[in-house]
Amino acid sequence: MARVSRGRIPVFYCCSKAKIFCVANQKGGVGKTTTTVNLAAGLARIGQRVLMVDLDPQGNATMGSGVDKRALRQSVYDVLLGSATVREAATHAEACGYHVLGANRELSGAEVELVDLDQRESRLKVALAAVDGEYDFVLIDCPPSLSLLTLNGLCSAHGVIVPMQCEYFALEGLTDLVNTIKQVHANLNPDLELIGLLRVMFDPRITLQQQVGEQLKAHFGDKVFDTVIPRNVRLAEAPSYGLPGVVFDPGAKGSQAFVEFARELVARTQLNR
User: What pLDDT was estimated at residue 167?
Assistant: First the structure.
């Protein structure tokens, strides 16, 4: 994907069909996996073709999409090592409406095995290029650390979506992530951009969250998505049923917010073509 700068707002035109976004945050417990699976389900609900890639060895995004990680015959591990293609390893999560390139504990061994391979940071990028025309969006759930797995996600992506809670320590973690994106952009993937910040688990009754939200808007401007994901019990319950909240309870406020976020993301990508 090439970039043309007009003023301060980056304008994109895509040489490829699929928009590839990492959902990442180097701070754990911020709702990263919840964001990935619900955004995937929201995009599927509004008619987009979606592939969700789970790069976290815990496999929570896989299980949260209704796919049993223990029953996977092939996974993202096989794709990274070149023993399977994305088309061969991906599973259709029927209840959710999108495809899943799943992960399980095997993936934790990939770190060691990738070290000695050629183009170790771009293995996923090469694999995804083969299915570029088959999806509108590819969402990559990255582990909460800067590892070879995360680098493979960042080197594959056109941009990064950062879910974050409006808390003081979240701001410190955000600084680290923005610096990481800049380094990857400069050294490994010139297409990589910060797409936007998504405020999650938001409770408007808490004054501090309102203040942090206003600080984000003041500092990052239109990089902060308009959609806000509220703290919602049904979203928290959904993973125990192996489903995204958007599928588990479409009427819940959190689910409706993710569908709205999906619409906003589609509108932004169309605007920036």
Answer: 72
pLDDT value for 89 = 97
For the purposes of burial, counting CB atoms within 10 Å of the CB of 9, is it exposed (0-12), middle (13-18) or buried (19 or more)? exposed
Residue recorded with tokens 């070149």:
82
Domain boundaries, the chain: 2-271
**pLDDT: which is higher, 203 or 45:** 45
Q: Which CATH architecture has domain 2-271?
A: 3-Layer(aba) Sandwich (3.40)
The pTM of this model reads: 0.89
